Amino acid sequence: MSFYEHADMLAEGGMLRRLGPVFARFVTSLAPLGSPAAGNALALACLLLSELEGRGHSCLQLSALADDPSAMLGWSEDDWPGLCAEAGPLPQGAAAWHAYLQDCPQVLAWPGGADSGQPLVLAGGRLYLRRYWSDENTVADAVRARTSDSEGEPKRGRTPFSLEKGVRPLFGSPSPALVRHWLDRLFTHATREGGADWQKIACAVATRGGLAVITGGPGTGKTYTVARLLALLFAVEGERAGQLRVALAAPTGKAAARLKQAIDDALEKLSDSLEGALPLRELAERMGGARTLHSLLGARPDTRAFRHNAGNQLDVDVLIVDEASMVHLEMMAALLDALPDGARLVLLGDKDQLASVEAGSVLGDLCFDAQAGGYGAATAAFVEAASGQVIPPEFLGNAGALAQQTVMLRQSRRFGGPIGQLAQAVNNGDAEAARAVLRAGRDGQVAWNEAAQQEDMLRLAAEGYRPFLQLLRQGAAAQEHDAWAASVLQAFEGFRLLCAVREGEWGVSGLNESIAQRLEEQGLLKRRGEWYVGRPVMITRNDYATGVYNGDIGLVLPDPERPASLRVYFSDGGQVRSVLATRLRHVETAFAMTVHKSQGSEFSHTVLVLPREASSVLARELVYTGITRARQRFTLLTPNPGVLPEAIRRRTERTSGLRSLLA
Ligand SMILES: Nc1ncnc2c1ncn2[C@@H]1O[C@H](COP(=O)(O)OP(=O)(O)OP(=O)(O)O)[C@@H](O)[C@H]1O
User: Fold this and answer.
1) Which of 189, 223, 351 is the best mutation target for the ligand 1 pocket, counting ligand atoms within 8 Å of the beta carbon and taking the most?
2) Which helix (H) or strand (E) holds 248?
3) What is the number of other CB atoms lying within 10 angstroms of the CB of residue 528?
4) Among 13, 201, 234, 516, which residue's CB has the most CB atoms within a 10 Å radius?
5) Residues near 155 by Cβ (< 8 Å), separated by ≥ 6?
């Protein structure tokens, strides 16, 4: 068998994505490489690079190419050596691979090589598809520029936002004394254990520089903090507060709606507690809604390019992006490109959650030092002057500029109970502690069915979805249709079944059909063809014409105008929006959904279903993300209890060059 026949066979068998061999053939065909064996070595690198890109890595470490990447790919021991044997003689060791690749005309060796638009780039011991190399550099350059002053004194003498239209805005820093004055008024609660108030510290740090990263687990007060940060930014502007252009955004519509709602509520409460000292209600109204990043940047049909870019930047002074762990590398690069130099960017997210579905692990990379802190003397002095907080000595150090602008919130307000303990144990990789919390099943907040059968899952699903389906069957009656639709959508958020995998007995595809069947048997659902009232659907592809995006979840409800047709209703901020069902082409049923797709959402009762067999996708971040989707109750179903400790021990590492570019 030839090398390519072998690669095709692996692609047929689902071990490689089909794009891999096509991409390898294309790249090697671009220029002759002396001998077929020389071409096969490049083709092998392309196959692995393409495979890793499909799995979310932004590049390939040459050391992985030189070693046996079977474990990384979830392959058995013989598979990789078998493919290598067909390729012929290969470079031995990372240095030999480097020497070989840098001589390939298809590869730009950076720095130093002549750039002729080669499809691959070799930089820092990593092989990239050009697009990701360029995106990583865009992100790293922008982050460096936005944090360049944060190790030293804050910038002075600059106006915090544009005073007139047409003037390029420049950010600056209000005086530490002014910041402190307002922080003391805005934060009136004491910290729980009397330690440093990281929320105040986060606000202080965010008033200097063009970037602040605020990370923390669920319920640590990221939204609480950012609402106060906004109030602070308005306050220090005094009379000019009304001119501050603030944009709120998140990767999904659901997350954007939650952000807006939480900020509006917080500003309203603050407005009362400040007894009118700041016109926060009016300012919140002026801010407008929160948007998805796609919509903020101006996504256009049939192109990856956005309407807003370096040549046509966003009209904002402050941009707050929530659920930043879901933002992939390409999107982050596009966002930073489109952001004016003078605007402040505040990224909020949980660094320990699953990384984005698409390539990159940007928030994780940016938060590399967050746990340890590593704050320098200048930051500590600034924080003390601007917030009255003393950074505890264990968090002092000499980490880089980005670390000075990164704050981790460390105290969960919502998750003091068993759900929080479980999430913490999983995050610490402590399988024993996780098992103990689950087995204790305290207060009915956590439960674990260790040897679950399909029947257990179906019973839970029928119980969990009953309230929303009953509300749905009562119909709109006296209520206005949209208000009724909103209440049905809200009731649907009460319960969700999350799966680790798509395929197989315990995967999303099979479970959705079995759940729908069970609900039908119990008279809760009437299915007629593909579209039926009560069908929850998830959008699987962005559709700019109808304004729905990958990951959006809606419910099929009757059309109030035309009783014979059905519409899909989506939550949109405090409102609902609907699209004619037949206009949506890329959807799937969503009684059960993957943990990946559940990011950015929370449900009162979340059930996490793990498959019988462990696999490389079943890792700590996935279990942690599943648990932290639960607001009040969490149930774990495992057909085989042994997969839980294995999953907790395994970490998902994404290969990326961003960390070393920022070091
Ligand atoms: N310093 C504080 N004092 C009093 N209550 C607080 C404080 N910080 C947060 N809270 C409350 O704790 C709860 C969780 O806060 P918040 O929603 O801001 O957390 P979060 O980190 O944004 O959570 P998630 O990631 O799950 O959205 C909220 O009810 C909030 O009002």
Assistant:
1) 223
2) strand 246-250
3) 8
4) 201
5) 149, 171, 172, 173, 208, 209
Residue 654 and residue 355 in contact, taking contact as beta carbons nearer than 8 Å: yes
Of the chain, the end-to-end C-alpha distance in Å amounts to 45
CA nearest neighbour of 560 among 506, 620, 481, 648? 481
Tell whether the model's pLDDT for residue 11 goes beyond 70.
yes
Q: Is the CB of 601 within 6 Å of ligand 1?
A: no
From ligand 1's centre to the CA of 88, what distance in Å? 58
Residue 166 has pLDDT above 70, yes or no: no
Peptide bond into 89 cis (omega under 30): no
Ligand 1 center to residue 240 CA distance, Å? 29
**How large is the ipTM?**
0.98
Number of other residues whose CB lies within 10 A of the CB of residue 131: 17
- Answer whether 15's CB lies under 8 Å from 75's CB: yes
Please work out whether the CB of residue 220 comes within 6 Å of at least one atom of ligand 1: yes
221 lines ligand 1 (CB under 6 A): yes
Q: Following CA atoms 123, 124, 125, 131 in sequence, which dihedral angle do they give, to the nearest 10 degrees?
A: -40
Mean pLDDT of the chain: 88
Closest among 510, 498, 496 to 465, alpha carbons compared: 496
What gap in Å lies between CA 465 and CA 636, rounded to an integer?
Answer: 17
Nearest to 270 by CA among 259, 257, 279: 279
For tokens 């498959």, the residue is 611
d(CA 587, CA 550): 9
CA–CA gap between residue 370 and residue 215 (Å, rounded): 8
Q: Is 631 in the pocket of ligand 1 (CB under 6 A)?
A: no
Backbone φ and ψ of 521, nearest 5°? -60, -35
Q: What is the mean pLDDT of residues 409-415?
A: 80
pLDDT at 160: 34
- Residue to substitute in 413, 415, 427 for testing ligand 1 pocket (most ligand atoms within 8 angstroms of CB): 413
pLDDT tens readout for residues 362-376: 999 999 999 999 999
DSSP string, 251-307: SSHHHHHHHHHHHHHHHHHHHHHTTTSS-HHHHHHHH--EEEHHHHHTB-TT-S-BS
Q: Is 218 in the pocket of ligand 1 (CB under 6 A)?
A: yes
Closest-CA residue, ligand 1 atom 5, reads 413
* Fold agreement (3-124, 176-412): no
| Ligand 1 center to 568 CA (angstroms) | 32
For the chain, which residues make up each domain, given as ranges? 3-124, 176-412, 418-649
**CB 171 less than 6 A from any atom of ligand 1:** no
**CA gap 365, 380 in Å, rounded:** 23
Is the CB of residue 228 less than 8 Å from the CB of residue 270?
Answer: yes
Checking if the pLDDT of 565 tops 60, the result is yes
Nearest CA to ligand 1 atom 9: 221
Atom of ligand 1 nearest to the CA of 266: 31
- Does domain 418-649 correspond to CATH entry 3.50.50.60? no
626 Cα to the center of ligand 1, angstroms: 19
Residue nearest to atom 10 of ligand 1 (CA): 221
Answer yes or no: CATH 1.10.10 is held by domain 3-124: yes
Which three-class secondary structure state does DSSP give residue 622?
A: helix
3-state DSSP assignment of residue 568 = strand
* CATH number, domain 176-412: 3.40.50.300
